[in-house]
Amino acid sequence: MHEEWAKWIEAPTHHVTPAGSVKRPLISNVCEWVKNSWQRVKSETIVKSFKKCGISNALDGSEMTFYMKKVTHRVKTTMKMILVAVTTIFWVSMMNKLCYGC
């Protein structure tokens, strides 16, 4: 993506504002950059990334390594802690509104 932007910014064809600043790229330019960037990514890199994240693993857990099991457990634990914190904040704010009219 950065390479695409660098090519665009170095090209003398983009427009400038009256103050001389470069105008932002068009959405069509950015879409083209994203498309070109994705085309350069090897499919094996995408597959490995999904496997590393545990997204494309077999549902029975047969592809899950010890490390991935540990990470999955940590993520679940962290998500539970976040849910408890958000719920607590919600109820405290509701109680403040009820008790103090804030």
Please summarize what this structure is:
The chain is mostly helical. Helices cover 68% and strands 0% of the residues.
Question: How would you characterize the overall build of this protein?
Answer:
- There is one protein chain.
- The chain has 102 residues and is mostly helical.
- Helix content is 68%, strand content 0%.
- It contains four helices and no strands.
- The protein has helices at 2-10, 27-40, 43-53, 66-100.
- The radius of gyration is 24 Å and the shape is flat.
- The two termini are 47 Å apart.
- The model has no long low-confidence stretch (mean pLDDT 75).
Distinctive features:
flat; 4 helices
Question: Topology, please?
Answer:
Elements: H1 2-10, H2 27-40, H3 43-53, H4 66-100
- From the helix content, strand content and strand pairing, which structural class follows? mainly alpha
Global shape = flat
The parts where pLDDT drops under 50 for at least 5 residues are none
The N- to C-terminal Cα distance equals 47 Å
Mean pLDDT: 75
Determine the strand fraction and express it as a percent band: under 5%
Number of helices: 4
Q: What is the string of helix and strand elements?
A: HHHH
Please compute the radius of gyration using only Cα atoms.
24 Å
Largest sheet: none
The tally of beta strands, per DSSP, is 0
Q: Helix amount, in percent? A: 55-70%
